[in-house]
Amino acid sequence: MNRIYDFGSGCTNPDTFPVEELAKAAASGIREVGAEFSRYPGDLGHLGMRQILARRESDREGIAIDPDHVALTNGSMQGVTLTAEAFLVDGEPNIIVTEELTYSGTIGAYRRLGVQMAGVRVDEQGMCIDDLEAVLQRLQHAGTPPRFIYTLPTYQNPTGSVMPRERRLQLIEVAHRFGIPIVEDNCYADVHFEGDKEPALYTLDDTDHPHIYLCSLSKILGPGVRLGYVYAKPPMLKKVLDRRYDGGNSLLAASVLASFFGDRLWDHVNRMNIALKEKRDAVFAGLQTYLGDVCTWSHPVGGLFIWVHLPDDVDHQKLRQLADEANVRYAPGSAFHIEGVDLPNLRLAFGYPPLDAIHEGIPVLAEGIRSASGVADSGERAAAG
After folding, report:
1. Do residues 46 and 217 touch, judged by C-beta distance below 8 A?
2. How far apart are CA 336 and CA 57, in angstroms?
3. pLDDT tens-place string over residues 312-341
4. pTM, rounded to two decimals
5. Is the domain of 270 the same as that of 359?
6. What DSSP string runs through 153-217?
7. What is the domain extent for residue 175?
């Protein structure tokens, strides 16, 4: 069977998944909980795990976090849907403002909930605040203010952009002025490779403006563990948890992960990021070698994605066909536009494929892009050079 080059999956690095360490942690974590497995875990979930996650936020952001303001969820996507459901009003227009390019899973969840999405332009520094203000003014004048602003300000999916501190403060000011809650999705928070980290939005606002923060372990461990969390101060947290009907997050999973992470969270994160950075850099090198004359791409300092701008004349249907024939997987730009608009872009995810598959697969993808756009192939270009 021909090898599959999977640049489409947004999963993190399987090479750094700590199988043996988790197996050992399971024994101690399960014994610690013991007979409590016979009870429902409740809306907040495993206290030890919440304490670890509160410490994660405190260590990164430099402010104290109350574990009782953290609720465990089945991945951050449950937080996305619970939050949306908490703000929706039956029989009225339910509009959510978000980046016009955002995570396809969130787009799908909002569509299934019957939400209308109002898009805001995105540039290399994230959501454009002047356009955000224009969108909010338009909705206000139409008598249909949005339920909240949903944003991925850090290592934005799919573009990889990071919103600088000044723009974050502007976003908060605009949200205050229009009286719109903020939902901050920071699921890639610790997938960081170089440079300074920008502060989470919630740390920049010491008022009681409604703010809900979503995060996850999917990107620093694996989505299969299904553990995310919601952080919000009262009464916002209760508003979200009032929509919860599942009895709480898996106490079994949380007990194992609490035992595993203990005091080694940052050691694990650092080990994971070293391997991910090597993969990211391999994609950069391949793109430069094989597509440097016809494409441009983002240069994210964190996260799992590279946003590639294709030649304007690329035939997307032909590219998909060629990629399928060569067993190359990628995500088309249209999957991340809230209205499904065709875009001259694709998203490359570098966390999941092995390093040697990146070295082999990027040249194969490049051949497909060149063929689909009618430009000289890389072999001809190399010979000419």
Report:
1. no
2. 28
3. 999 999 999 999 999 999 999 999 999 999
4. 0.95
5. yes
6. -SS-TTT-----HHHHHHHHHHHHHHT--EEEE-TTTT-B-SSPPPPPGGGG--S---EEEEEES
7. 20-264
